Amino acid sequence: MNIFKRLLRIGQAEIHAAVEKMEDPIKMTEQGLRELQKDLAAATEAYAKVKALAIRTENEQAQCQKESMNYAEKAILIMQKAQAGQVDLVKAEELAREALSLRRKFYTESEELGAQVLNLQQSSREMLRNTEILKENMEKWEKELRTLKARAKVSKATEQVNKQLSQLDNNGTVAMLERMKAKVEDQEALAQAYGDIARGKNSLKDELNDLLKDDSFSIEKDLQAIKEKLGITDNP
């Protein structure tokens, strides 16, 4: 049926051609699913109508069967009245023929309606089966679409990051960082050298101070040596 022809659209050549032309496949799939959703609603409505027609036809068939049986009973009843002398036989036969004619008419209509009921029931079962298949496929496709949309977002973000990373060297960022690192290391080495020089000066100063510091014990010893050389004795 035409309702289900769009099931093949995703696999048709024009879709592949559109994708090759850089059209957005996700948007196209979303549009396709929206159209299929409309088709599903139309298919469901059509199924309901066929189902209702089958029920109505089945009721009409039952009514025809009932009418056929009623006229058969009337034909018998008329002939029984003729047998009992209540109705003229000729008149009774005429009425019985009319009743039997109507009985056959309703019986034929009942048979035709029965065949229609079978066809309508078969059609409704097929429509229901196709509608259920379409519904299941749509649910699966919608789930896959959600997954693909999430993957597309991740891949787009990853592509952007990788693109930026791939352009780092082209922009001289890595080289600039290396030069900055070398400059900082040079500055650190120079600062260390100045520190070593400053510490060296402090050591020499400390050594000189140690040599020139006031040692009272050494002075007294030198004074005593001078006094002994000169023969000076300390007063008792």
Mean pLDDT: 79
Task: Work out the helicity level.
Answer: over 70%
Distance between the termini: 146 Å
Strand residue percentage: under 5%
Number of helices: 5
Beta strand count = 0
Poorly predicted regions are none
Largest sheet: none
> What is the 3D form?
rod-shaped
* H/E element sequence: HHHHH
Total number of domains = 2
Radius of gyration: 57 Å
Structural class: mainly alpha
List its traits.
2 domains, 236 residues, single chain, Phage shock protein A (PspA) family protein, PspA_VIPP1, mainly alpha, coiled coil
What's this entry about, in short?
It contains five helices and no strands.
Provide a descriptive summary of the structure in words.
The protein folds into 2 domains: 2-166; 175-230. Helices cover 85% and strands 0% of the residues. It contains 5 helices and no strands. It has helices at 13-20, 25-83, 89-166, 173-212, 216-230. The longest helix has 78 residues, at 89-166.
Fold blueprint:
Elements (H helix, E strand, L loop, with lengths): L12 H8 L4 H59 L5 H78 L6 H40 L3 H15 L6
Helix pairs in contact: 2-3
